[in-house]
Give the backbone structure.
Amino acid sequence: AQSVTQLGSHVSVSEGALVLLRCNYSSSVPPYLFWYVQYPNQGLQLLLKYTTGATLVKGINGFEAEFKKSETSFHLTKPSAHMSDAAEYFCAVTLAGGLTFGKGTHLIIQP
Amino acid sequence: DAGVIQSPRHEVTEMGQEVTLRCKPISGHDYLFWYRQTMMRGLELLIYFNNNVPIDDSGMPEDRFSAKMPNASFSTLKIQPSEPRDSAVYFCASSPSLGLGNTDTQYFGPGTRLTVL
C-alpha cells in the first residue's frame, strides 16, 4: 500500500518569496506522483505529475517539483509567490487506479 | 469540452433519506472515480470504474453506499439511508485510458456538497 505525508497543514509566505511545500511518500515500488491545487469551493486541478523520465517536473503557474527516490520526496516549489497562489495543495500517489492523497497544505500569501 | 459535470452542487437532506449524486465524465474517458472529502479524513477514494465496470470498491464505507455506471456517460453514487456523518464534499473524476495501469491525469468535477441533518 502507498501513503503520502505532507509536512505542514498551513504554510505562510510573503508575496514574491519562495514557496516550498513538502511531500514524502511511502510505496513498495516507485509510484506515480502528482500535485493538485484546490481553490475555495472548486474541484482539484492538476499542477504537475511525475511518471517516468526526468525527475524535475515543471507544471502550470510556475510550479515545479523534483522526484527524489533516495529521500522518497516530491516537494513542490515556486520561486516567487503570487497572491493568486493562495489555495489548498494536495500531493497524491498512485501505483494504478485511484489516487491516495495527503492531508493537504493550505498556502497563505502575505502581502 | 465541458469537463466533468456533477449534480447537484449542493444537497441538504435529513437523516434517513436517500441521496443520489450524479456525474457525467469527460467524453472518451474510460476511467471514472468517486472521492469523498472531509475535514477529518481528507480526500478518500470510494470506488472507481473502468469501461463502466467497478474495479475497486474497497473504499466504500458501508453497505449504505452504492455506485453504478450504467453507460459511459453517466454514474451515480447513492446513499441509503443517509446519516449526519456522511456530510462531506463528494467529487467525481475521470481519466482517459492508457492501457496497463492508470498513470494519466484525473480531471475532477466541481463536487457536490452534501449536508445531512
